[in-house]
Amino acid sequence: MVATWNGATNELHLHNGRISYVIRALEDGSLAQVYFGPALAPGRSYVHLGPAHFEAFSDRQTEFVALEYPTGGAGDFRVPALAVEHADGSSVLHLAYAGHRISTGKPAIPGLPSTYVERLDEAESAEILLVDAEGGLEVRLLYTIFADQPVVARSVRIRNAGTARVTLRSAMSASLDLPDSRWDLLQLAGTWARERHVVRRALAPGRVAVTSGRGASSHEANPFVALLRPTTTEDHGTALGFSLVYSGNFRAEAEVDPFGTTRLRLGIEPEGFAWTLEPGDELATPEAILAWSETGLGGLSDAYHRLYRERLARGAWRDRPRPVLLNSWEGAYFDVRASRMLEMATAARDMGIELFVLDDGWFGERDADTSSLGDWVVDRRKLPDGLDGLARQVEALGMRFGLWIEPEMVSPRSRLFTAHPDWAIGVPGRPRTESRSQLVLDMSRPEIVDHLFGAIRDVLRSAPISYVKWDYNRNITEPFSLGLPAERQGEFFHRYVLGVYDLYDRLTREFPEILFESCAGGGGRFDPGMLAFAPQAWTSDDTDAVERLRIQWGTSIVYPLSSMGAHVAAVPNHQVGRVTPLATRAAVAFFGVFGYELDPAALSPDERREIAGQVAFYKTHRELFQRGRFLRLRSPFEGDGNDVAWMTVAEDARHAVVGWYRILNRPQPGSDRIPLRGLDPAARYRVTAWPPGDDSMAARNAVERGGDDLMSAGILVVATRPETAARGDFQARLFVLDAVEQPATD
Ligand code: DGJ
Known about the structure:
Number of helices: 15
Strand content: 25-35%
Helix content: 10-25%
Radius of gyration: 27 Å
Structural class: alpha+beta
Distance between the termini: 45 Å
Number of strands: 38
Mean pLDDT: 95
Bound molecules: (2R,3S,4R,5S)-2-(hydroxymethyl)piperidine-3,4,5-triol
């Protein structure tokens, strides 16, 4: 892996044997994009691939020149990466190359989460300095190429080295100009309870944007888009990923210009953004992770999963097996009396569950969602022996104890709000919009972050707490901070996110042994920024197995199994009222960080036995379910979406688990085989079906089969047998594959 600068041609080539990224300083000083794609031989010049020069306002068609960090107002009419307002009100910039630096390793980004290295030889980084001579703005473009990863990390530092104030109106993290527009744009769209559904459409002239302006990355959008060739599938073809390590307002936007080139920009949402740089001030943008795959969308996912699991997530829990948990929410809601909690925990322990999580309702006087957020003091009416008493009793059962918090919020009915009404976000003299009867604390103000750090630290010190679920249940309205002067209100949203990161950073450093799970009314902030602090996230408030197929499929496009909280809940399901078999609910939730979210007292003895079996099964295959290579086989977003299949494979391909799901049963099903992927073609695998007691499918697949056979002919999931037809809706079956040492005789 190398980052090399060719002084003769002023060319930077980032290269690691898998991909190349080439840029070049042109004669007029502008920085041009030359190439991003499969690896090109190092040591050569690729000047012929890029533009010779960028001539502003020449009579030639120069506006389709590929630029690395474009600005507006000087001949490029496409959407800019950087837009400013100078002190005189003008907005023109002439950024010109002024130097570069190459180093081993990877620098951190001040105040923002980012990918990292553990050893210097894992990556090389380059920094290119661009200067606007007239205004004095300095722009440093930062690049990192990782050994053996098809990704480039990009971020930008913008410094006012002039003598007058400059206001940034748009400061994107990355911009990429591609030479054609034969791309589909893939995004992860949704809303509460149906997050990250896959949407794919062809690019056309004009702009298409995926954005959030809600203060969080949001349920509705995810800070990720991919460009795919129209023929690209899960395992074939070119795919390009753009992922932003950020949890606030963002924009991913593709523009196809009249000449059929494509510009993709990614960064903080410019709408409503204005950041003032006084002389000497600097702004660091969030990190964008660009990935390139020649092996389809699956290749992109492989790259993001590995990078985000191993070099974005951090802390003691990054590599540890995550515990199977029982969360109190759907089983008890606000009725969190100690006796009831202990009963739930005891039953959970008897079924093999390892962690009991006390969700919302334990503090203040919170009997409903109408009060007490901000009052992080235990409610002794419900927990007479305090958190400590309950946590110790849970630990005495041989389990760990976890706790729910929602630090960024305040209820108007709370002691905190009575004492500090001005801490809630809002515009003085105007009504504040309440959502779930709560307001949002102004995390852009350091004194509020300090208060929260103290309050939450005291709670976490008060009892043996091993796990924290950090929730965030509404978006931001009436954006305004009393901590900012009028001319700096455009900084509010980004400063809010910086405050959240600061609090996360301080708490995770103070409590390095606590496992943090992020949450935002389910998956409303499921993004790489959160993942840097909390290695797992509550994927969605929707616990229905059928809905979860789509949600977990879409989430897996970017995020690894180790990040996806997935629970089995009671039926009829609380979000959609659907009744699915217990085995199906588990067969979906297994693929992630597994748990339960129900009242064990409502279970029959048979169901308890079944759950104990599920927990034991998950523990046996935990490494695969949490850290295996996840491969998507049959999409719920294609065709009628009625059949879904995916699998997880061990790194050495010796073990795998395949999940197959049929939503509605059909009469007279034809037989169906699903070709598997990622196995060792030369190995032989023993095939076992789950749930146990139903091994007709395993028998039909033969007890042992070759990896070649399983990947080419496929695994039989539906056979035209009477019992298959009689199974009813919402079927699921898992196939466990274990490589056998000795080839068996056929
Ligand atoms: C929303 C979360 O997603 C749920 O799991 C639960 O913690 C509730 N909030 C509690 O208010």
